[in-house]
Amino acid sequence: MESIILDGKMIKLGSLPKEKLKQILSKLNDEEIEVKEEISEILEEQT
Amino acid sequence: MEERKSNTLLMDKLMELNEVEIKKSKVLAAIFQKTMDEIQTKKIQSLDANFEEQAKFYDQALEDYEETYQEMKGKYEEQLSQILEQYQTLFMNIYLELQEAECNQKIAITNWKKSCDIKQEILDKANLKMIEEYTRKIEACLQKKRNYDVIIEECENELEKCAIQMEKKVNSLFQDKSSQVFLTEIGLFGKIMNKIKNFFTGESKFKAYVIEPMKVELEMLETKLPDVEESMEREIVLFVAKIKQAKAETNQVFEQMI
Lengths: 47, 258
Hints:
The structure holds 2 protein chains of 2 kinds.
Chain A: E1 3-6, E2 9-12, H1 18-46
Antiparallel strand pairs in A: 1-2
Chain B: H1 2-57, H2 66-122, H3 128-173, H4 188-257
């Protein structure tokens, strides 16, 4: 069963309801946007 | 010292991004699997419920039709699975293209960093030609990264669309059986009349209005399925070709810029 570590806890994805998975996805989307923005800032600063 | 710090920061951020993307991929796949399971369960449950209610309406014992029903249900499940598997294949193809695009974007960023470092090193040596070459490479890598932003977004949108389309397609092909049940509340007299009617014609009506239409529907689906599968396969090929084309164009732009 696929699992991920989120906020230090191991989560088994298959055991979660779809709504909970969507919440996790939304959280990960926010994290992704944040990291991508930070990377873009580094690229802009150094170019 | 400052430069090393920024190098480490960028690599840390790339690793962080990689981890988030892996987690996201797993969650997206889990959501898709859940959607598939939900569709399958809902359709089968509705088929069972409809059959039971119709049997009750015509005063028919379910055990008498067990074999016939199980055979039809098995066929129904098989057809449903065929459609769902096609969407799973589409999902997997998009998923793989997305992963490759994310990986290529990270390579572009790493190459950008490498070019920046080399340019920094050669600045003092006043080799104008090389400085210009690395300035172009830096711009080209940045452009490549931006182009991959678009490709990644396109893949993510397609992944989202895939689950929605799957639900729509399944609902159009396998209509909800519960909606076909037409049972009205009747009084005691009506119930008695129904019992009498069912005693004489229940079996034949159940066969004519429930069993036969189900068989016809399954046969119709059987003839429709190859077309649906073919159109799905075409969709998969078109999507992969579109993304491959976008990746090839991105590489072309990169080559032209350097």
